[in-house]
Amino acid sequence: MIGVLGGMGPLATAAFYTMLTKFEVTQEQDYPDVLIHSIPSIPDRTAFIIGKSSNDPTGALIKAAKGLENAGAKFIAIPCVTAHYFYNNIAAALKIPLINLPVDLAKLARSKGIKKIGLLATSGTIQSNVLQSAFEKEEIKCLTLPSKQQSELMDTIYSIKQGKKSTSIFHLEKHLKTRGADAVILGCTELSLIAKPAVKRIDALTELAGICLKRIGK
Fold first, then answer.
1. Which of 70, 132, 199, 213 makes a 20 to 30 Å CA pair with 183?
2. Does CATH number 3.40.50.1860 belong to domain 2-100+206-215?
3. Does the structural domain 101-203 have CATH classification 3.60.15.10?
4. Which range, 20-29, 134-143, 167-176, has the best average confidence (pLDDT)?
5. Sheet with 183-186, edge to edge strand ranges
6. Percent with pLDDT over 70 in the chain
7. Are 85 and 49 in contact (CB under 8 A)?
8. Which of the residues are catalytic?
9. Angle, in degrees to the nearest 10, between helices 10-20 and 204-215
10. How many CB atoms lie within 10 A of CB 38?
């Protein structure tokens, strides 16, 4: 059984479940068993990381993960990249594996021969170096957006979380491409809900679904 610690935000979690079932089977019993714990009430990860909130989400994340473990999940995926800032604390509280998405994304990028990657992610993810540290270990240089464009990206991410129609991020992708990025990573799962790419992408949410399916032999 796949355990999904979700709700950050709910639309990304819903899209993630769709990805886990987006393949043909001979009967419905061939689809994976998935246990989803969607908790939008978990405090804002970015706000805490960048110092705009003192409401630490660590306890809520650990409680939710242990709930999945106790309910029978064999491993856990978190379809929220920023939440991986708390990865070590969550993993230490569990007896089952917790997928380390940034590490897996970095290994994937290296396997594709990427030397320089543009990061589209929350300000919390960027400031905490959650992705950068993983990519740099694979000798991949990371490019981030200037502050004004990063603020624009955060507005887009929060807009998607609020259920509003998403705006294009193509110009942000192209900006990173013109600075030499071999590819752009959608390092926030809300961005996976935006239309088709203008440049070469690695989609964190899609890759996480693939990692889960590979673990169970699908």
1. 213
2. yes
3. no
4. 134-143
5. 141-143, 116-120, 183-186, 201-203
6. 97
7. yes
8. 80, 188
9. 40
10. 18
